[in-house]
Every structure is written in C-alpha cells, then in structure tokens.
From TrEMBL:
Gene Ontology CC: one annotated term: chloroplast
Major localization listed first in the record, in broad terms: plastid
InterPro entries noted in UniProt: AB_hydrolase_fold, Fungal_lipase-type
Organism: Linum tenue
Segments forming domain Fungal lipase-type: 150-299
Similarity-based family: Belongs to the AB hydrolase superfamily. Lipase family.
Listed GO biological process terms: lipid catabolic process
Record's keyword terms, sorted: Chloroplast, Hydrolase, Lipid degradation, Lipid metabolism, Plastid, Transit peptide
Plastid in keyword set: yes
GO molecular-function terms, A-Z: galactolipase activity; phospholipase A1 activity
Domain of life: Eukaryota
The protein's name: Fungal lipase-type domain-containing protein
Localization (cell): Plastid, Chloroplast
Phylogenetic lineage: Eukaryota, Viridiplantae, Streptophyta, Embryophyta, Tracheophyta
Amino acid sequence: MLRVALHYTSTSCSLSTAATPCAPFTPLPKLGKKWSEYQGLNYWSGLLDPIDDTLRAVILRYGQFVDAAYDSFDFDPSSPAYGTCKFTRASLLSGRGFTGYRVTKFLHATCGLHLPRCRWTPSPRSTWIGYVAVCQDKDEIDRLGRRDVVIALRGTATCLEWLENLRATLTCLDDCGAGDARPMVESGFLSMYTSGTATCPSLQSTVKAEVARIMRTYGAHGEAPLSFTVAGHSLGAALATLAAHDINSTFADVPMVTVMSFGGPRVGNRSFRRRLERGGTRILRIVNSDDFITKVPGFVVDNSKNNNNNHNNRADTPWGYDEVGKELQLRSGESPYIFKRDVATCHELSTYLHLVDGLASSTCPLRATARKMFNEDFWCGKVGIF
C-alpha cells in the first residue's frame, strides 16, 4: 500500500508565543435555532448539492480549527521540543479569529509499537496531536445557537505514526458481537487511539475524561445547548471517528456529536458502520475524488460514484472495509489553481479547504468566485499522510 512521507515547508508559521493563521479566517453567519441542521441532525439533507453557503462556512471553520493543530505542532526533529505544541493553551487560538473559544485540554497520541531504544529511534512514542476548545463567549454562543465544543486532530507527522499507519489489518473494536457482527477497525488507528504510557494517558482516556468534565460543567442545566464537533484531517479524521464513537457509546444523554472528516482513510468494517449509525453519530466525510488516501486501506466492492451511500452490494464480510457517514465529494482536477496532481497535493488540507470554498454543486464543481486559498502564505505543507 502506498504511503507518502511528510514534508513540512512552512514559510509563515514560526516559534512564537501566539499562533499566526495560515488560512483566511471564515466567519460564520448567525445560526440560531438552525444550528443542529448544520451539525447533521437530518444528515445534511438538502444542504450538499448544491452546497448551502452556511454549511460551506461551517465546514471551512472546522477545517481551520484543524489547520491550527498543524500550525501548533513542532515538526522539527532537531528541536528539543519536537513532537510537542509550540504554544500555550491560552495563545494557541489567539490571532486566528476564533473569538470566544478557550482551549481547555491538549491531546496526545501514543504509538503502540515497541521499538528497541537506540540512537536512531525516529521520534518520541507520544506526541501532541490536537486540542479541545470550548466556546465561552456569550455573544458567540448566541450566534452559534449553542455552546460549541471542538476536538481538533492533526494528521500524521512523525515516523512512528507513519509506521502505525502500515498496520492496515482489521482488529476487533471490543468484545461485543460475534462472527460477522463484530465491529472491526484498522489496527494502527486503534493502537494510536488506545495506547498510552505511564506518563502520557491514551488519547481515548484523555478525550473521555475531558468530555465528562465538560458535560458536568455545562450539561443539562447549562444556559445553552451543548454540542461536540470532532474534526480531523487524514489520520486525524480516522481518530476523530473513533473518538466520536466512544463519546456516543460511553455517555448517557450525550449532546449531538458530529465528525468533520477531511481526507480521511477508511476506518472499519460494515458492523462498525452500523454501530456508528445506531449510536446516532453524524459524520460528514469530505472527500477529494482525486485523493488516493480516501480509498485505502482495504477494499470496498461497490465504490462507484453513483453508489456512495448504497451498502447493499458490498462484500458481506467482517474483513472488508466500509465507508461511514455522509459524503461531500470534491474534485481537485476542476480547480484552475491546482497545477500538481500528485498524491501529496491532492491530500493537502489546504487543497480541501480551497475546494470546499469553491464548490457549487456536483454539476458545477468550482465557482467563478472561488478564492485561491493556498497562496504562498497558506501552502504550509499539511500533508498528514495519513
């Protein structure tokens, strides 16, 4: 299976006390009581083709939360802080236009591979992978229609994470089910999600603990509804799917949980998809049809454009992968601004944001007013494969 090494060539992100945005900030209109529609209450019925302008702004905004996770990560292997966050919780979102949000928790993921300790060990086992941010500002809460909680996760950035991605066999998610009914997910993704060390709790345990704390603080008796949006790109999209499943299956009376998946690979089998659907997890899978990473790992028998949501004809086997959620399909080949067609370019987060910004409908894949969002200040090398 093809993998591409990450090349990070940022020209605008530097080691400073406050983060500098690498993407034009996308403001949201007032959502009010319609917020749940844009979070997938009706599975985005009537909003995708042609794409609703408010939904476009919502998708771009969550993409920019993920962009902030990339910008905040120390990619430099020669740095003493390699694999950590370059900013404090207070400064991570400052200057990016995310008014009213406060980062409440940093998230780390641990590689489950146990390599021998030696001088050439390529990267730390545990690295910073994202954050949790809670909307705190009353005016912003009124505008959004609820208290928004964002869990943002970056894609692959270290050699050990890259090695985890190679573990593409399916493994049982838990002890539930038997035979063909067993939910199964990709081994490497599950390892990254559940592994921890004596000094670094697993991503799974950290997410669940922080969600529990937020629900206690702002739950049933809060002044505004609560929602959780788990957004990720590439590997981060796969981990976001696992985290959303965990939140919905762990907590009683959980608020709406939505996944914004940018360029995510396949995660699990048909039983896993059914588990997600029964749990009410809303997943919007934003896919560039020219992005190879969204077509791996594993196989799906019926994966034609006209049957993206038809699972009846696919291989009825626990060992085959199945697509999850609702798909928003993009095509990088339609953009006059994208000159390269290589795997890395088609998978870039910046490519995805540009295509979402320009998308009109399936028959008009790019508006004439589309912004060139990946200029030299924005093309920050967020490949994250995968």
